[in-house]
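Pasting as-is:
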Amino acid sequence: MSKKLNVIVLCGGFGTRIKSSIGNLPKILAPINGIPFINYFLKWLDPILSMKDVQLTFSGFYNFKPILNYIEKYKINCNFAIDSQPYGTFGASCKATLEYPADNYLILNGDTIFFADLVSIYKLFLEKTELPFLILKKIDKNNRYGGYELDQGKFIFTNNDAGNISLGAYFISNAELFRRWRLSTKSDLTYQNINEFKEFPLMNDKDCLGLEPINGVCLEPNVPFIDIGIKEAFLRAQKEIPSILKGYNEPNHRCI
């Protein structure tokens, strides 16, 4: 494999809940103070993308052409995987790994930014790569996101009102991703099996991370986190996203 880490950004969703605010524009190009979200997103990722042997891959499906055009126009150094159907977050991740394999992957949602040191978290993952390493956040009231409970040092996915939510970001080794595909689909991860599989979409929480206990790090409730997938959050993002990125530039900032 040519790269040790592939950062896979999922940006193939329909954006139905935010369409009233941005029209047919892909979420990753949504305007934040007049600047496309992708600009903030790449600045957020810059520390980990600046490491040796790291590549960036965007995974697209619905309305992918504006994203591809933007990448080509501004000469963003990345790969682009185009899906032929809505594979779901885990399905799209798996297909992208076949096209652009690496030793390890960081899977991210292309509409989310939070205050955390991804480089330090990656180093924690590298200490024990046998299991996926999910980034979570403690929360008092969970009515939107997948919940995880901590049990004997491992995180377990639950449909209950758990106090920890997934931020849609996790590290996983190539071997473990292939193993969890087999657990979920009862088949090997190949192009042929993806083409023949009839039960998409496959989702990260239900069909990968939720199959067996996982490792992770849980951020405190006051850690800034924004997902622009709904109108209310998109409006908040106009102030919150610049504030999150400003925090990285402040002297002696602390985040994990």
